[in-house]
Amino acid sequence: MWVYEKKLLYPVEVTTCNPMLARYLMEQYGGADGELAAALRYMNQRYTVPDKVIGLLTDISTEEFSHLEMLATMIYKLTKDATPEQLEKAGLGAHFVNHGHSLFYENAGGVPFTATYIQSKGDPIADLYEDIAAEEKARATYQWLIDISDDPGINDALRFLRERENIHSLRFREAVELLKDERDRKKVF
Amino acid sequence: MQNPSYRGSYKPFVSPRDPCPPITIKYFVLPPQIFTNFQQPGLPQNSPEEALMQGSLWPKFVDGFSREEGIS
Ligand SMILES: [Fe+2]
């Protein structure tokens, strides 16, 4: 069960109409290492991990959805008043004929989201190491987005999102340490 | 805000036939979390306002990133 708060996790300031930047941000919206992939991956893995780390996966998955909402806000605002011609110039012509001004889960290259981006192996260490890699890849994507964007408002929000990936990565590595502690421990059930 | 202690660098191979002007030193990110395996309790904390702005309750795990760094 979730409680929804009708505000963004972090304020997003968009002052320009910049469909090209919107297109790049879609990498983190519906891309392989994006927020949707992260949220769905953790939400699904949490059923088959040891009890100790279920809560962590729930919490981080929930936070990723709030990141997804921030990305959606940025993309929407950067494109909402763009003309079809402007969208076409930004490489979003194909997006426009299929989706109009609405958003869709696809990456910067227009490839639609697919569940094959994520995995659930049913092996806690395999799953957690995938999660750590996902966080570092998301961090790197944010770096390249910051480097390609010259919009200070967007870059401020991207910088915030990048720092969150640092913490998520650390938490997942702590989860691995917690599981390593179980090694050879004599237990009476 | 970027912390130089969370960056690495190396000298890439430069060929006399490189088509673009060569970059002689390459920088890359070594984010703070990789130097901690398990967070110890009682770390100095940001104020709630600072934490919201920084994206972390603990300054220790904030390294910042800006295009002015010129990493890519
Ligand atoms: Fe994350």
From TrEMBL, chain A:
Entry-linked SUPFAM superfamilies: Ferritin-like
One family name in Pfam for this protein: Mn_catalase
UniProt cross-references to InterPro entries, sorted A to Z: Ferritin-like, Ferritin-like_SF, Mn_catalase, Mn_catalase_dom
The keyword Membrane is assigned to this record: no
Keyword Repeat: no
Cofactor detail note: Binds 1 Ca(2+) ion per subunit. Binds 2 manganese ions per subunit.
Cofactor(s) the protein requires to work: Ca(2+); Mn(2+)
Binding site for Ca(2+): D59
Protein name as it appears in the record: Spore coat protein JC
UniProt source species: Psychrobacillus psychrotolerans
Biological classification of the source: Bacteria, Bacillati, Bacillota, Bacilli, Bacillales
UniProtKB/TrEMBL annotation, chain B:
Source organism, top-level taxon: Bacteria
InterPro entries cross-referenced by the UniProt entry: Spore_coat_CotJA (IPR020256)
Keyword annotations from UniProtKB, A to Z: Capsid protein, Virion
Identification of the protein by name: Spore coat protein JA
Originating species: Psychrobacillus psychrotolerans
Top-level taxonomy: Bacteria, Bacillati, Bacillota, Bacilli, Bacillales
